Structures are given as structure tokens and as C-alpha cells.
Amino acid sequence: MLFRSAAACERVAEALRVVRISPEFSQGGDQNVQGETQKGMDVVANDIFTDALRGCVAAMASEEEESYLPGDHPEFRYEIAFDPLDGSSNLDSNLPTGSIFSVLRHSPTDAPFQGSGRAKVVAAGYALYSSSTELVLSLASGTTAMGFTLDPTHGRFLLSRRSMECPPSGPYYSLNDAREPDWPEGLRRWVNDAKRGQTPSGTKFSSRYVCALVADVHRTLLHGGWAGNPRPHLRLLYEAAPLAHISEACGGRATDGVRDLLDIELTGLHDRTPVFIGGRADVDELLAYGDVQQQATTYKTPV
Fold this sequence. Notes:
Blueprint: H1 2-16, H2 23-26, E1 28-31, E2 37-39, H3 40-53, E3 59-62, E4 69-70, E5 78-86, E6 97-105, E7 115-116, H4 117-120, E8 121-129, E9 133-138, E10 145-151, E11 156-161, E12 172-174, H5 185-195, E13 206-207, H6 213-223, E14 226-235, H7 236-249, E15 253-255, E16 265-266, E17 272-278, H8 280-288
Helix pairs in contact: 1-3
């Protein structure tokens, strides 16, 4: 299943190389179940993932599908959930995008995609499409994460990061600073202090924000700090939980501001949650300020 997911990421990377010269990839699509206008590439990526994974799982769930897709073999042991193209608003600017997926245990006696990530997720991964294509996987044990870089000449991923470890602290935070007027008091105080080197750690933080969750989390896992969104905006099943699994495998922490993301019970396929992912010391320091979850707020630009 991970092999097929990797193959899907390779095909998405190939399609992205010509997205600017292929009108059917870059033109707008319909609205998805989230109420967001799809890019043509959103639809292409979703088709790539569903085609690659059909026939090897008990069920599939996608950001682009209203309900889960039953597999051809309900007796199979695993389900898979995926965001086929994260950050598609970056396509017009030729900025990084990504794909996110998680493999979950399937119980033939329970409805698919129920329970917490802690109980259900056995492996997770993301692909970052940038100057190179990098695939990061957390293995079934949840204690190891490895990175692979796509060699497009030979069509294969080569091991490039044998064991990823997120530094407990780092110099960056990543979120949309333009939303500051709506932030809760604890988050506002932390960011104010962090810019001035006045948090308990004494680190003077810089802001980094790509507006593609995969890119912001990937940088964070390599360099420390934290990345996220204080609003209940990101989808738990196929964005937050898989990235949390990878973060914990790297030694980092992933929380909604109150609970670890992997401990949250899913109640609906498209549940949303606040997200803070990063170095354990930095996330703990943020949470010590209290009151970091923003209320649900609608913006013209959704992220």
C-alpha cells in the first residue's frame, strides 16, 4: 500500500511539472465537499490516488470526496485517507504543494475511519513537491520517519534522510500573521514575546509561512519551531492525524492546543481541528501561555 501511495505521489509530481502549460490542470473545477473551489489539478491528483489505491484497501477517504469510497475487498486489513493535493492555491505562483496520506487499521465489524489516530493509524506519509520531490514516511512502529527523494530519470524514490529527528526547539514559527486581530490572547502574547526573544526559552523567533501545510510542517520537522493554524480549519483525518503521526515519529509534538491530535476521536469524515505541530519544547512553551485556540472564523481567503 505504501508502494502504491509512493507511485501516486510520483504521478502527481509528473503532472505538476506541466501544470502551467496544461489548461485542463490549471483551470478551475467544481466546489468540493469543503465548499472550496477545486483547481483542475485537485481533480487530477484525486483521480491519481484513487486509481492507484483501488483494489488494495478496505476503504478510501479523500478531501475531495463527500463520503468514503468502499474498497473492492472489504475483508482487507487497512483503510487509507488522503489529501491528494495540499496547497493547490500555490499553483498559480509556482510555489510548493504536497500530498498527505495515512494508513489505518480496518475492523470489519466497525464503520470505516472511526476512532482516534492513536488507535487506528499504523503508517503515514507526505510528499513535498518543490525544487525536488521528497516523500517522508513514518513506519508502523511510529518511532521512525525517513525521507526519500524522487529520481525522475529512473522513476524511483531514493533514501535521502535515514532517520528524521525534529529539534526540540528552533528559530521559526509558521502561521498566517494577518489573522492576528482574531487570535486568542495566549497566542497573541506568545507571538509578541517570541518576536522579541522574550519567551522563557529566550529564542528570538522569525516567521516563515509558505501557505502549504506540507511545506511548513516539513521545514519545521527539520529545523524546529512550530507550524499550524489556530482555527478549526484543517481536516483531522487526512491532514492533521497523518502529520501528527510523522511528527511524533520524529520526536516532535502535535496538538490542537488542548489535546494531542492523535488522541482526538473522529466523529465525521471531514472533522476540522486547530493544529500546532513542531519541536516538543517549542510546542510545550506555546501551550504554557494558554488560550491558543481561535474560534471558527470565515475569511475570503480560507487559509
